[in-house]
Automatic annotation (TrEMBL):
Gene3D superfamilies: CBS-domain, Jelly Rolls. Pfam families: CBS (PF00571), cNMP_binding (PF00027), DUF294 (PF03445), DUF294_C (PF10335). Residues 153-210, 217-272 form the CBS domain. It comes from Rhodocista pekingensis. This is DUF294 nucleotidyltransferase-like domain-containing protein. Keywords: CBS domain, Repeat. Residues 10-108 form the Cyclic nucleotide-binding domain.
Length: 614
């Protein structure tokens, strides 16, 4: 028994006395072929190490989830969660088990970090509800990625009513030693007045200070929820060229943050890059501003930032580059003849970009659009922005899904008709396009155009079983690379021979499932993790299924980012192809667990949306 423990991580690193104690605590059990170790709902009192033989793990439905061979463990999740068994485990052949009592197993994890890391569920080292926080004391590039605005709110805001006089507002600002004053009516933020407003709109204009403050306030100011990340707030300040940002919690004002507040909370960060991008005068300058991005992503991975946080940060820089190119294009062509919205699609819309991304975008134009009168302006505008993005480092979309393509540059009514056609006649090409365009987000221009389009599309797709069934079938084209005996199935040949495609075989299946669940319930979130959280709450996927997929998404995303960081450190362009030998036994085991989760959830989606027909 001691020999087996010495030959297997993580027990091979235990001190001799600890190893002797563990060997004494272990109970030996033999299971004949076909015997049941545990049934769904059964009590699990020990973690079972396979000393010889093999176990088979089946879902309650009978579907094969995995097989555990020599040196692998069963019952870990139930013991960690203190919950009943979720699956049936049986002996595939005559099997010898070493049972570690649950209390002893928990003690080992609590006292030996190597054991805790080895037996942590995929993604469990991160909280499910927020991106990972950086290590204590770290004020470098990860400083804004794990912190939310709620962390900066320390006191109730000082406010003023809209009917209060300008003089009263000025007195309150002086007494509280603040540079702005939110204007609140019936617990709703209706405006903001700043010391600059008092200087420029009152003193310089010779305005009577007895007038109501509503006469000089900025109405309906840009605001943000306190769940937003700090770097997102910094980018909002830079984008709108403002210095004060009201912070809401559930629609109620809870504070105001300034650029100075955020500067104190950060060191070198994505927000600085976004601000720099916003000052550049051409695509070459934007490319130059983004040059530190690969190193910054590498540093973030090294400091423990989550895939969720990094995806938001990298996508925010793409947003900043897009917004600046839109501003430069409008400066060159003149103001738009009718309102429009620049719409990000795909991974940018989902805020899941990594260092290497091409562009997917479209234009939604106001229905006052006249092709004869306005077509040339929008054609030239879209070409300038798309080609500018390409020059700044965002490759042109190989499928030409970009605003410079007339097919992706339409009035709102035409977009609604197009989506209606895709949903009503779900043919393969329509499904492929829909899977990209269902991930939409306004980046520049008149955002309500995209918001109305999204509301319309979600209403048409919600609960549409025919369309959802076809979407499910299309989503099954990407399957996890897990063989029947739980072995990793590698790419057999070509440039990426013997590797795993972490994007198409790992992450895309989860992205597809998250989209499917969101469409079924008509949920507006676009980010895959946010979709899974919302879908779990709405009931289109079980809470446990949503949590398992979130864990798998977090872990697979982190594996991909670590791989890309290694390539960046070696001076090579990042890709999505991971060689198994890059991974530790710990990561390989959890990779199999994550793929097994995805495979199981795909099977459940087929049963739910296509009646079990593949």
């Amino acid at each position: 028994m001691r020999g087996l423990l010495l030959s297997r991580p993580p027990f091979d690193g235990l001190p001799a006395a600890e190893l002797d104690g563990l060997a004494a605590a272990i109970a030996v059990r033999r299971l004949p072929a076909g015997a049941v170790l545990v049934e769904p709902g059964g009590t699990v009192t020990a973690v079972s190490l396979v000393a010889a033989g093999a176990l088979e793990v089946q879902a309650p439905s009978g579907e094969l989830l995995s097989r555990r061979g020599e040196g692998e463990a069963a019952g870990v999740q139930a013991v960690l969660e203190g919950a009943p068994a979720g699956n049936r485990i049986t002996a595939l052949e005559d099997t010898l088990l070493y049972d570690i009592p649950a209390a002893e197993f928990r003690r080992l994890r609590a006292t030996h970090p190597a054991v805790a890391r080895f037996f942590a569920p995929p993604g469990s080292e991160r909280r499910r509800d927020t991106p990972a926080a950086p290590p204590a004391g770290w004020d470098g590039p990860a400083g804004l990625l794990g912190r939310r605005l709620a962390d900066l709110i320390r006191r109730e805001p000082v406010v003023v009513a809209p009917e209060a006089s300008i003089a009263e507002a000025a007195r309150r600002m002086r007494q509280a030693d603040i540079s702005c004053l939110p204007v609140v009516a019936a617990d709703r933020l209706v405006g903001i007045v700043t010391d600059r407003d008092l200087r420029n709109r009152v003193l310089a204009a010779g305005l009577d200070p007895s007038l109501p403050v509503s006469a000089v306030m900025t109405p309906e100011p840009t605001r943000v929820e306190d769940t937003a990340l700090l770097f997102e707030a910094q980018i909002l300040l830079a984008r709108h060229r403002i210095h004060h940002l009201p912070v809401l919690r559930g629609g109620r004002l809870v504070g105001v943050v300034t650029g100075t507040d955020l500067l104190r909370a950060q060191g070198r960060s994505f927000a600085f890059l976004a601000t720099d991008v916003g000052t550049r005068e051409d695509a070459a300058g934007i490319a130059d501003a983004l040059r530190p991005l690969p190193q910054l992503v590498h540093d973030l991975v090294q400091t423990g930032a989550s895939a969720y946080g990094i995806g938001h940060a990298v996508s925010a820089l793409t947003d900043a580059a897009t917004l600046r190119l839109v501003e430069l294009a409008e400066r060159r062509l003149g103001p738009p003849p009718v309102p429009y919205a620049w719409m990000a699609l795909g991974s940018q819309a989902r805020q899941e970009q990594t260092v290497r991304s091409d562009q997917d975008n479209a234009l939604v134009i106001d229905d006052a659009y006249d092709p004869a009168a306005h077509g040339d302006w929008f054609a030239r505008f879209a070409a300038l922005v798309c080609e500018g993005l390409a020059a700044a480092g965002y490759e042109l979309c190989p499928g030409d899904m970009m605003a410079r393509n007339p097919a992706w540059r339409m009035p709102l009514a035409a977009w609604k008709e197009t989506f209606g056609r895709w949903i009503g006649m779900p043919e393969p090409e329509a499904l492929m396009k829909a899977s990209v365009f269902f991930d939409m987000r306004a980046v520049a221009g008149h955002a309500p155009l995209v918001e109305e389009l999204q509301r319309t599309v979600l209403a048409v797709a919600r609960g549409n079983r025919l369309f959802l069934g076809h979407m499910t079938g299309a989503a099954m084209t990407h399957r996890p690379p897990l063989g029947f005996f739980r072995n990793l199935v590698l790419i057999p040949g070509g440039e990426h021979r013997h590797s795993l495609d972490m994007k198409h075989a790992g992450l895309v299946p989860i992205v597809d499932l998250a989209r499917l669940y969101a469409l079924d319930a008509g949920l507006p979130p676009v980010n895959s993790r946010d979709r899974l959280v919302a879908a779990g709450e709405a009931g289109t996927v079980s809470a446990s299924g949503a949590h398992d997929l979130i864990d798998a998404l977090d872990f697979l995303g982190l594996v991909r980012l670590r791989h890309q960081a290694r390539l960046l450190a070696a001076g090579r362009p990042p890709d999505n192809y991971v060689l198994p030998e890059e991974l530790s036994p710990f990561d390989r085991g959890h990779l199999k667990d994550a793929f097994a989760v995805v495979k199981s959830m795909q099977a459940a989606a087929l049963a739910a949306y296509r009646g079990g027909r593949g």
